[in-house]
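Human: Note token order:
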Amino acid sequence: MIRKHLRLLTPLALLGLLVGLADLSHGSVGEDEDYYMQGLLIREQYNQVQVLEKQNSFIPDGEEDPKEHSAKKTGKAKSDSSKKTDKTPADAKTVKSPNKKAEKTKKTAVKNPNSVSEGEQQYNPIKKECPPIGLESLKIDDFQLHASSTKRYGLGAHRGRLNIQAGLYEDDLYDGAWCAGRDDTLQWFEVDARRLTKFTGVITQGRSSLWSSDWVTSYKVMFSNDSHTWITLNNGSEDLIFKGNREKEIPVRNIFPESVVSRYIRINPRSWFTRGSICMRVEILGCPMPDPNNYYHRRNEVITTDDLDFRHHSYKEMRQLMKVVNEMCPNITRIYNIGKSQSGLKLYAIEISDNPGEHEVGEPEFRYTAGLHGNEVLGRELLLLLMQFMCLEYLSGNQRIRHLVEETRIHLLPSVNPDGYEKAFEVGSELIGWSLGRWSNDGIDIHHNFPDLNAILWAVEAKKWAPRKMFNHHIAIPDWYQSTNASVALETRALIAWMEKMPFVLGGNLQGGELVVTFPYDRTRSQGVVREQTSTPDDHIFRWLAFSYASTHRLMTDANRRVCHTQDFAKEDGTINGASWHTAAGSMNDFSYLHTNCFELSMYVGCDKFPHESDLPEEWENNRESLLVFMEQVHRGIKGVVKDHQGRGIANAIISVEGINHDIRTAADGDYWRLLNPGEYRVTARAEGYSLLSKKCEVGYEMGATRCDFTIGRTNMSRIKEIMEKFKKQPIKLPMRQLAARGSRRRRLGT
């Protein structure tokens, strides 16, 4: 509709371009030069809209005549905080500078909408809701956020982003909100959209803090096109005051009954928690206005060309999508479930392989899991996109994908915690806060619900019992953990059974809320220490695996990117040892390393745990190459088969690498895979009842594991034991002829 009317513009609209030279919007000193031109074009678009309304009487569907609304546009915010109302202004209008003539026109009040309770939104079935403009997702950069005053730098406007988290120890750099320097009704928080935007609503939170209780309980909203003249949203007779928060964590959304087109938006707090201060975290809902010249296209924005299903899927929709992928690629996919959630939902996985349903000797097995925390939704959708992508690319003949499918058995488990996800999905991407849906139905954090095998191993090492009395790998699960009374989620038990059944070599669990890859150990070795570098014997390969994902992600290693919350992981190449970040006992990563052959890492794939579905295409582009590259790392190191002299594979044979105090074991068919960085290694294969054998194996820099097979023979003692077992440990009864021959032989020898 707008594009149709843009064709009717007269040359008068171009005058706005010249007018803009006289009054540019304010910006930071460090802004790029193209934002100067953006300011001019914004004024041009602003004048174009005015011409359309005046000359063509263009009124979008459901809107009132702009003449009737002109009386609603007052020039400044009133400071009387007592004028609270549940009235919220009913469709789209464009911000205009106030004038006396407009103030004298007839005032038309908007109908009072229903009041909005905490965490809820007002729906208008006629209008399409606009997505977030990007404070939480960091599309809005720090230079676009301004405030009337600031308590200190760490509580500046740049920290006023929805769901931003403060550190455990609050400091001057990374606190959990914007907080005003003074507590009065003259304070404001401002967002510069840098282009004309149709604003439709605001979402607010209080301050993220373990020590303070600060939130805003009511506020006004103001708009401007030049950052000097401001219009307060009103209902025709008085300024509208929106209900804010009742506590600091649950987001509250207010939808404007009428959308407003402008460049700048301000939130003006009117009241706040009596024992706290003015502190806010904010997200703005808005749709960018048409940009026929594509000038406002963000310079780093990537538009995907993949034709995939970019939306959030409920449990039922996820299951249906997996079925569609299976029907499209029946020869390389198989759907199965590993168990059920606490509420009875099946935990579905999809296998992608050229021979689905079977383990092929010499072919490594890889897994991706997501959704251990139900509210960290991006990983779940990335795996759903990945299975679609691999199916379509395989069918189109993509050689890279075909090679990956033919040489690897891939398992994708998109939703480990479907119960938690359904809670988050029901509320919506912007209203779940930081933790709703994180835990299982019985309140358990699945990712940290595994047995703490670190403590067992370290206690044995302290007594110098390893490896003489206990192995340094495949550590047994304690009996207490397997009891029915143990606080173990059904989902965790299902994961453990799955991990023990499949000979996984490499795995990644996709999480959210940060941009970093973590690797074991996740628990600090020193008692009572919250953060401490705690490396595994395979630290070098773990660092490479983490870097392989982070370095191919579009943002993780970007030194110029903004910090998600409190820590700049880009300085560490987008990777960190888990215990160096924060200690956590019983993590899936540590358990996988100590109980199975699988090297497991955690990928935190986005600052926003539950991004709006309009952000999914870009998030897919951010992670697509990383997802593929990390899968390919399963072919790094050495592989082979351990056999006896009859050519039979030996299961549970131990593969040791000199200098690395962590072994792995062969699978049921005697095949093994040992992840290693390039270099020359002395490798030993041994099994109970067999002689050990050592050889040198060299790992090159090219992709593809080096073949290193072993053929080992039985020991004399094992043969004796086998004979004894065969005859049930009874004396062997020899035939009489053999006994007589032995007797005569002894007599001849004089014995």
